[in-house]
């Protein structure tokens, strides 16, 4: 989750955002648009902790998944 990417799904109502900085920015500016955050299992660092804190503040669910599922 280090590079910035945006992927649109077939249905235009949903986008996937990748990257710690990208996710942190959207949580600070438009958190109401975020439905869920998926995080790599086993990851534990300061940048991620900031995102998890912001998600908790906004009551956004966090799902821990295998790296291959990201």
Can you describe this structure?
With about 70 residues, this protein is of the alpha+beta class. The chain has a single domain, classed as Ribosomal protein L30/S12 (60s Ribosomal Protein L30, Chain: A). It is about 30% helix and about 25% strand. The protein contains two helices and four strands. The protein has helices at about 20-30, 45-55, and strands spanning about 5-10, 15-20, 35-40, 60-65. The strands form two sheets. A two-stranded antiparallel sheet has the order 1-2. A two-stranded parallel ribbon has the order 3-4. Helix 1 (about 20-30) packs parallel to helix 2. It is globular and about 25 Å long. About 5% of the residues are buried. Mean pLDDT is about 85; it is low at about 1-10.
Topology:
Elements: E1 5-8, E2 15-18, H1 20-29, E3 37-40, H2 46-57, E4 62-65
Parallel strand pairs: 3-4
Antiparallel strand pairs: 1-2
Helix pairs in contact: 1-2
Amount of helix: 25-40%
Report the C-alpha radius of gyration, rounded: 12 Å
Q: In angstroms, what separates the terminal alpha carbons? A: 8 Å
The strand count comes to 4
Task: Please describe the biggest sheet, giving its number of strands, its sense, and whether it closes into a barrel.
Answer: 2 strands, antiparallel
CATH H level, superfamily name: Ribosomal protein L30/S12
CATH class: Alpha Beta
Please provide the ordered H/E string of secondary-structure elements. EEHEHE
Cα shape: globular
Task: Label this structure with key terms.
alpha+beta; 60s Ribosomal Protein L30, Chain: A; two-stranded antiparallel ribbon; 2 helices; two-stranded parallel sheet; 23% strand; 70 residues; 31% helix
């Amino acid at each position: 989750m280090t590079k910035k990417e945006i992927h649109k799904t077939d249905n235009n109502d949903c986008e996937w955002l990748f990257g710690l900085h990208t996710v942190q920015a959207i949580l600070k500016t438009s958190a109401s648009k975020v439905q869920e955050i998926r995080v790599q299992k086993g990851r534990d660092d300061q940048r991620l902790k900031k995102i998890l804190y912001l998600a908790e503040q906004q009551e956004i669910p966090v799902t821990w998944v295998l790296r291959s599922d990201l």
